[in-house]
Automatic annotation (TrEMBL):
Name of the protein in its database record: WIYLD domain-containing protein
Top-level taxonomic group: Eukaryota
Organism expressing this protein natively: Aegilops tauschii subsp. strangulata (Goatgrass)
Gene3D superfamilies per the UniProt record, alphabetical: Histone-lysine N methyltransferase , C-terminal domain-like (1.10.8.850)
Region (Disordered): 67-97
Span of domain WIYLD: 7-68
Pfam families in the record: WIYLD
Acidic residues composition bias: residue spans: 82-97
Record lineage: Eukaryota, Viridiplantae, Streptophyta, Embryophyta, Tracheophyta
Low complexity bias (residue ranges): 71-81
Length: 97
């Protein structure tokens, strides 16, 4: 059975994935960011805007995604540390100064 011919959007998505794979981005992350930009910002015909300046809009969105993930990790670590600190205090008796 012959392989089906990819649609234009699929070719463009593959090109975007290839571009960012060289920089170490995961395929799923690139696909999610591109789809979100096309859906929420540029519309289905927005590929030329995404491709402009070597996907700079996509790069910015990927940077924002990374920053949000880092902030969430820091908040979770801080929360865990606070919970651990609170747990340590329970076993100690209060000593008046």
């Amino acid at each position: 059975m012959p392989r089906r011919r990819p649609r234009a959007g699929e070719k463009r998505m593959d090109a975007a994935i290839d571009h960012f794979a060289e920089m170490g981005y995961r395929k799923a992350d690139v696909r999610r960011v591109v789809n979100k930009l096309l859906k929420d910002v540029y519309g289905k015909d927005g590929w030329p805007l995404l491709e402009d300046s070597c996907y700079s809009v996509v790069q910015e969105a990927l940077f924002e995604m990374e920053e949000q993930e880092k902030l969430q990790q820091q908040q979770q670590q801080q929360q865990q540390q606070n919970e651990d600190d609170d747990g340590d205090d329970e076993g100690e008796e209060a000593h008046p100064d």
